[in-house]
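ARCHIVE CARD
CATEGORY: sequence design from structure
SOURCE FIELD: tokenized fold
FIELD CONTENT:
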């Protein structure tokens, strides 16, 4: 009897526990059914074109997810994402963002809320809503970092949010800020699985980030790492990955290797993503241009432009428009080139800030050929600002890499210090010896760090000097470039202006090749340099076959004419027997402005050319 009495409370407790468990399971099943009903309601509304019903149901579905198991809300969010993309529900994705940032959403479980943020971020990127995705994640960054998820799926969510944010920063060309997020995401993925498939994505994104930073060797390294570990079934990014690798090789002046990467992929194209293949095609055009295969580049530029219009990504439309504009300029279609290049420069884009410096330079070249000198000067100034801004950004990236390396070194030092202290606590008799070893190691480590910092600082300084030289110097002739020419007008002691044009360079290139044409330009440049040796003359290459010389008033017109004649005859004796050049001379006092001075010398050059 006593045994029965003592057993009775335990039986009641067990019964109560089982009953409560059944209630929880029943409630969870009920909520799962409600979530399925809401999802079915959204599918029916999408088929009927009822956008308002979808926007009303989506916040309810997110709210109901808080009562589901992890497997259930993960499945529901994945199905919702597929529905939004298939039915192009951009507005519904925006509604989801507003709800997830609301006070009501903060009452959801962190795992549920952050899972939905991850899913909706991917959808927003699919719809090119990059700024909105970035602002949503940015609002929660501190909380996401301090979050301590307990399950594998929620840990994956945390890592994914970090690498999505890093990717969005790269699209803003803020690579220095993006790198720590990629590195942290990789660390989190490795804590889940050393071979986690998302590490493959991280390597792709790091390759892209270093490509934007013009760290081409690192971009190549991470691209090859990604190619070496493609997870099963992950073919959706292969064309994008090959494009990053080809671009990194091409920027290292390894264009033949880049073309081999492109050809190998095209022999077996496995990527179904049109937007990724669009990026691949844009890189393909760059490689064809560098290999001087301009006919193929023009054909590809036209088809890529059409594909960009179909895909609708604003950044890719800008790039495809610019590529087609450059090719039209190369083939002499200047009016079409001017329209396309201006559209590429002035059109808005998604999250990208500004234009690459090369875009302005291509447009300036077309404007100069069209005789629109005022506009050309204005856009050249924009090119100069973009050039300086980009290289300042690249220097910031290099500094950020250095800081990251230093931070890792400090962490390693702290780890070594903790290990040393534990060893000292366990073996007091060896304390003195270990202290001496530690101090020697610390001094050595500090010496290495100091030497590394000094070396990297020297490298940054040398690179900065090289960039300053490149900004004002033509690489083929070592004359001043167009930027240096326009700035030279600020000096009042120049009296004569010569505008020079090599006659018939394009037919020469067509008959003998561009390399031979470059040799002609170099030979003629050296002859000009020999004649105009005075320190009071400044020589510039302002275009492909165009030169300009500014001279003070100590030289006579007759001397200038003699020098120009001798430069032509010297070039002819150098192996270019049919070479000739036209030039025009104008004095500063003949013109009221720099523009008029250039125009006057240019007109006289064309008059000489027509008289031949």
């Amino acid at each position: 009897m006593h045994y029965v009495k003592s057993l009775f409370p335990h039986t009641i407790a067990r019964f109560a526990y089982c009953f409560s468990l059944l209630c929880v399971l029943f409630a969870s099943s009920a909520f799962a059914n409600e979530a399925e009903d809401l999802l079915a309601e959204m599918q029916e509304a999408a088929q009927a074109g009822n956008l308002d019903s979808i926007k009303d149901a989506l916040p309810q579905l997110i709210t109901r997810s808080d009562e589901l198991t992890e497997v259930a809300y993960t499945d529901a969010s994945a199905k919702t994402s597929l529905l939004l993309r298939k039915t192009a529900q951009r507005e519904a994705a925006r509604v989801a963002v507003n709800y997830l940032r609301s006070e009501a959403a903060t009452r959801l479980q962190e795992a549920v809320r952050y899972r939905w943020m991850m899913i909706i971020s991917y959808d927003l990127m699919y719809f090119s809503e990059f700024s909105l995705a970035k602002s949503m994640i940015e609002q929660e960054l501190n909380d996401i970092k301090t979050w301590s998820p307990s399950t594998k799926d929620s840990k994956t969510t945390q890592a994914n949010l970090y690498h999505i944010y890093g990717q969005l920063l790269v699209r803003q060309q803020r690579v220095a800020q993006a790198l720590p997020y990629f590195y942290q995401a990789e660390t989190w993925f490795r804590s889940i699985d050393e071979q986690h498939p998302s590490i493959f994505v991280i390597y792709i994104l790091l390759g892209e980030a270093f490509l934007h930073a013009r760290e081409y060797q690192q971009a190549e390294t991470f691209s090859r790492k990604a190619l070496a570990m493609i997870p099963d079934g992950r073919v959706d990014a292969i064309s994008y990955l090959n494009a990053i690798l080809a671009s990194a090789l091409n920027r290292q002046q390894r264009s033949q290797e880049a073309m081999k990467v492109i050809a190998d992929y095209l022999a077996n194209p496995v990527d179904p993503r049109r937007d990724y293949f669009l990026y691949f095609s844009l890189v393909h055009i760059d490689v064809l241009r560098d290999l001087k295969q301009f006919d193929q580049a023009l054909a590809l530029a036209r088809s890529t432009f059409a594909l960009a219009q179909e895909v609708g990504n604003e950044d890719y439309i800008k790039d495809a428009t610019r590529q087609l504009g450059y090719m039209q300029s190369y083939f002499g279609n200047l009016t079409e080139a001017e329209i396309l290049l201006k559209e590429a420069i002035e059109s808005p884009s998604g999250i990208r800030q500004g234009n690459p410096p090369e875009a302005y330079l291509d447009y300036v070249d077309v404007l100069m050929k069209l005789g629109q000198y005022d506009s050309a000067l204005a856009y050249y100034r924009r090119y100069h600002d973009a050039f300086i801004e980009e290289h300042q950004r690249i220097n910031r990236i290099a500094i950020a890499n250095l800081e990251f390396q230093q931070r890792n070194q400090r962490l390693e030092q702290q780890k070594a210090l903790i290990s040393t202290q534990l060893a000292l606590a366990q073996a007091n008799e060896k304390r003195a010896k270990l202290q001496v070893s530690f101090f020697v190691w610390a001094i050595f480590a500090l010496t290495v760090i100091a030497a590394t910092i000094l070396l990297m600082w020297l490298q940054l300084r040398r690179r900065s000097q090289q960039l300053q030289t490149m900004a004002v110097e033509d690489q083929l002739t070592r004359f001043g470039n167009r930027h240096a020419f326009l700035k030279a007008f600020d000096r009042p002691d120049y009296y004569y202006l010569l505008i020079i044009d090599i006659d018939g360079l394009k037919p020469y290139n067509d008959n003998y090749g561009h390399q031979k044409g470059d040799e002609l330009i170099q030979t003629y440049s050296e002859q000009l340099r020999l004649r105009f040796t005075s320190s009071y003359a400044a020589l510039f290459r302002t275009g492909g076959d165009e030169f300009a010389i500014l001279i003070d008033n100590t030289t006579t017109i007759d001397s200038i004419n003699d020098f120009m004649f001798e430069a032509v005859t010297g070039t002819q004796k150098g192996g270019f027997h049919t070479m000739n050049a036209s030039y025009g001379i104008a004095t500063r006092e003949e013109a009221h402005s720099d523009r008029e001075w250039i125009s006057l010398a240019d007109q006289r050059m064309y008059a000489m050319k027509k008289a031949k």
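CARD ANNOTATION: The longest helix spans residues 373-426. The chain has 24 helices and four strands.
SHELF: design records, drawer C
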